[in-house]
Known about the structure:
This protein is of the alpha/beta class. The chain contains 6 helices and 6 strands.
Amino acid sequence: xxxxxxxxxxxxxxxDIGATSKPGVLxxxxxxxxxxxxxxxxxxxxRVLLERETLGSTGIGDGVAIPHARSRAIPEMLVxxxxxxxxxxxQALDGKPVFLFFLLVTPDAMPGDHLKTLAxxxxxxKNPALRSGLISAEDKRDMQRLIFEEDxxxxxxxxxxxx
Length: 163
C-alpha cells in the first residue's frame, strides 16, 4: 500500500475550490484529474462519486469530507485535496459546511487498499491542528507539507506478506 506522500501530487491540490455544491465539488475534482491526465472519463468519475454519496454523505464533520469511490474506469489509486474558503453545504454528519476535501478513487480490484487509505486519510484529518493549518495555509506547497508531516507521525504501511 502506498503512503499519502506517494499519492498526493502537487498538481492534484485545489487551493480554493470554486464550487458551491456537492456535485460541483465532485465535478471540479474530476475536471482536475482529467486535466492532469490521470483519468480519461470525467463524467464516469462524477457518476461513481455521486452514486457513492447516495449511500451516505462522505462529509464526516468538523469541516471535512472524504469523497471516495471505486471504479473500473480508474487506472490506479488517485488522491486529491482541495480547500473551500467559503465552505460548501455537503450534508455532513454534523450539519455544518465543509471546507476541506480529500478525494480518494481506486480501481475496483483494490478494495483492501481503498479501505486502508481511506482510514489513513480519516486518521490524519482528526487532528484539529492539521485542519486549522490547512484552512490558513497560503499555497498548495504549504498544504502538501502539512499533510505529509501529519501522515509521517503514524507508522507507514507495510506490504502484505506473501504466503
